[in-house]
From TrEMBL:
Belongs to the glycosyl hydrolase 30 family. It comes from the Bacteria. Residues 70-403 form the Glycosyl hydrolase family 30 TIM-barrel domain. It comes from Mucilaginibacter boryungensis. InterPro entries: GH (IPR017853), GH30_C (IPR033452), Glyco_hydro_30 (IPR001139), Glyco_hydro_30_TIM-barrel (IPR033453), Glyco_hydro_b (IPR013780). Residues 406-465 form the Glycosyl hydrolase family 30 beta sandwich domain. This is Glucosylceramidase. Residues 1-22 form the signal peptide. SUPFAM superfamilies: (Trans)glycosidases. The keyword Magnesium does not apply. Transmembrane segments: none annotated. Keywords: Glycosidase, Hydrolase, Signal. Pfam families: Glyco_hydro_30 (PF02055), Glyco_hydro_30C (PF17189).
Length: 468
């Protein structure tokens, strides 16, 4: 077979070599439009880097400036989510889990999950792993049992791990057992001082119990929303209490038991970074702490950078945000969660982004009484063996499919109406997530290593651009 060739500065270039160079300069675009004309769809046209740029705004990628590594992107796998998915037929469930968790061209590759330690407010009922009749106590934890989780969360996690054995799992408690609490209630109250060590042992037993089921808990937060007594279940834990618990009980208990699961503090809104800061300023507590977790129901996402600057040796995680939208609307505001979370959190040093929550039914059920969330829409809505994809799914897909664990954020200039974030994956692929938050359709350039590609996004659109 003969190859045509052309003269180049260094000699002969075959057509095969030219095609290889063209592929390396080609940019793929996955697009979601606000009018739903494209919902996370790969565009047919191929964008090519050119030597010259036009006069439009330019996003410049500089991979010589690197920031934090990425652990992954995903959802809270609540007990309610697990119930709905486990009630699907085996073939329907397998297809759904493959779409969510497989890492290939057809699926979105979710790589991180958050589970509740005991019940969250999106369970059918409240429970802990050591529930007793009123007036009883169990300081030796002889009645400890993973209970309801063995019926749904654990079996579902096993099926997910069969698809992605490397998925990271974060555990978060909403409350200690009521007999350990000052108010004897699942809602509010605080952990009694005399049960600090018992509760540390309880968390050790949880991690060991899941390990016995073949499920590794990569990290735990010490308390979900420790300043919020309104959920059911919930428990208040002030910053000084959390510091004392970590340095005197939880940290030593983990060390004694040989547990490598990371300890993450705070796990609440960006309006109180001082909570995490005060714990990290306590050397006796900080030595056991990997980093801090944040939500964004209050405050500004930039608080994460402020904490990073104060404690650059500690990691940051974005552990929860509810993302909802009315069903059957003609437009989708997918730009908002992408801008606030996937761009906002990662540009402020977060190693992950977790949405709340993975699945619910058409009525946003289940949730607990006296403080459960009646409006918490799942990323998917499950109706028997059928499911629909919601705004949280599409926002997630723009990051999770391409920004694989081990990716590193790299520098890119942030244009006001074109919020963006850039990464390099472990395989060397470049990923740029951009949303048009302006009032009109915008044309702009992407510049990398002196060459540019011209592109356009409609108002409210999100684009993920990838190239080798």
């Amino acid at each position: 077979m003969k190859f045509k060739s052309i003269i180049a500065a260094g000699g002969l270039l075959t057509l095969a070599a030219l095609n290889s160079q063209a592929q390396k300069s080609a940019v793929s675009l996955w697009l979601t439009n606000a009018d739903r004309s494209a919902m996370f769809q790969q565009q047919k046209q191929t964008l090519i880097f050119q030597a010259k740029a036009d006069a439009n705004p330019t996003i410049v990628i500089d991979d010589k400036i690197t920031y934090q590594p990425i652990d992954g992107f995903g959802f809270a796998l609540t007990g309610g989510s697990a119930i709905h998915i486990m009630r699907m037929s085996a073939p329907a469930r397998a297809a759904l889990l493959k779409e969510l968790f497989a890492n290939n061209d057809q699926n979105i590759g979710v790589s991180y999950l958050r589970v509740s330690i005991g019940a969250s407010d999106l369970n059918e009922r409240v429970f802990s792993y050591d529930d007793l009749p009123a007036g009883s106590t169990d300081p030796k934890l002889e009645h400890f049992d993973l209970g309801p989780d063995k019926l749904d969360v654990i079996p579902l996690l096993k099926e997910i791990l069969a698809i992605n054995p490397k998925i990271k799992i974060l555990g978060s408690p909403w409350s200690a057992p009521t007999w350990m609490k000052t108010n004897g209630d699942t809602r509010g109250g605080a952990l009694k001082a005399e049960y600090y060590q018992t509760y540390a042992n309880y968390l050790v037993k949880y991690i060991k119990g899941f390990k016995g089921q073949g499920i590794s808990i990569d990290a735990i937060t010490v308390q979900n929303e420790p300043l919020n007594p309104k959920n059911n279940p919930s428990m208040v834990m002030q910053a000084h209490e959390q510091a004392d618990f970590i340095k005197n009980n939880l940290g030593p208990a983990f060390k004694s038991a040989g547990i490598k699961s990371r300890i993450i503090v705070y796990d609440h809104n960006c309006d109180r970074p001082d909570y995490a800061d005060s714990i990290l300023n306590d050397p006796a507590a900080a030595k056991y702490v990997d980093g801090s977790g944040f939500h964004l129901y209050g405050g500004k996402i930039e608080a994460m950078t402020d904490l990073h600057n104060a404690h650059p040796d500690k990691n940051l995680y974005f552990t929860e945000q509810m993302v909802i939208e009315k069903d059957n609307t003609p437009t989708t505001n997918v730009s908002s969660p992408v801008r606030k979370l996937f761009i906002g959190a990662t540009r402020n040093w977060s190693r992950n982004v977790l949405e709340w929550n993975m699945a619910a039914d058409v009525n946003n059920q289940p949730h607990t009484d006296r403080g459960g969330c009646p409006m918490c829409q799942g990323a998917i809505t499950v109706d028997k063996d059928n499911f629909t994809r919601n705004i949280a799914y599409y926002a997630m897909a723009h990051a999770s499919k391409f920004v694989r664990p081990g990716s590193v954020r790299v520098a890119s200039n942030n244009i006001e109406t074109l919020p963006n974030v850039a990464f390099i994956t472990p395989k060397g692929k470049k990923v740029l997530i951009v949303t048009n938050s302006g009032a009109d359709r915008q044309s702009f350039n992407i510049q990398y290593k002196g060459k540019t590609v011209a592109t356009t996004l409609n108002k409210g659109a999100v684009g993920t651009y990838t190239w080798d």
